[in-house]
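Subject: Sanity check before I submit

Could someone independently write out the structure tokens for this chain? I want to compare against mine line by line before I put it in a report. The sequence has 365 residues.
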Amino acid sequence: VGRDENNLITQLTFDKSASIGLKDLNVTDEATFFTGTNAFGRSLIGAVTGDYGNADLGPLTPSGACKEDGCTGGNGTDPGRKNNLPICPNPSTNDNIYVTLAGGGLFVVDVMSTPMKIVGEYTGSEVNGAGCAGVQVDDTMYVDSGVSAGGAGANQSTFTVYSFDDTAYSSGSQPDAHLVFKDATNTNTIGNSNGNTTENLSGQIPGFTTRRDSHGAAATADGSFVHFVDRIQNVVETFDVKTDSRNTYSLTESGACSARAVTDYNATYNNDPAPDLMDITPDGKYFAIAFRGPAPVTVGHGAQGSCPGVGIVEISDDGSSGRLVDVLRTTNTVSDLKSSVKPDGGLFFDGDERSDVHGTIVVYK
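---
Independent answer below. Compare away.
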């Protein structure tokens, strides 16, 4: 990323030499970028440099283990990384990227080396799969584990949070994955083996489902607490960064979601925020949380919601709790060529609303 004296981005260059594969890879198509202008008439910027021959696209980690189970030439033991589809890359201030993996496991990657280098490699049992959120407080990175986005996730239930000492990797050591919280009802899937069942068939309808899905996260302004949303149970779990003590608050209790619900949605279940990714406002008083819609574009089995938009949560109790005070409703109605939907484990919906907010970023000005 190139910036000028005002810190404005002036150039974006993709360096093929810096690339790293999360499994054994062969490049079949060269990297490209777009030219021309965007919707606002501004020139698009981009460039490609480097050589994939200098990248790390091989099957092994620095320790000699398979990056993904079943590779050729590993040290003989599969690490429980069954599917290395990357879910979310979470950057730290120490130039590490925490890459969550779909089938279990985690890679911590040093982005300043060329090629990028794996400096932390965790098995599927050490860090369960399908996490998304990563939030840093001082030198500690918090990462979660949720349910798979694909069809297999429909019968999974996972709410797990880990923390890592982000300073340890620079000295060549790998810190243990510290378990902050693991729900006792987690299914034995995507690396977990501490549960009592391999599947949860309760779907996602509020009042009936017992499934859990940890997803978005953010820290309070003073860094005292981290908040993780449950996309299915419509609650937020908060953790004291010093003690790991947990508090839970509801996103349905205030009724703010039902007050902004889609009008042609099932009225019995119109208080279903389905929270996704989140951010904090500059004054530190509120969280802005993406709320999913009745026709979810992704993760249909765990993300159907009734009030698509941006939920505004007022932070309370010195940062350990919160309350949903309003929803900034978004709308994207489609009346022609639309089809009815019934997400796995969810409700039939044939209305016009197709808005489905997946993430929020608060822009500081």
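---
OP: Matches mine. For the report I'm noting this point. The mean pLDDT is 96.
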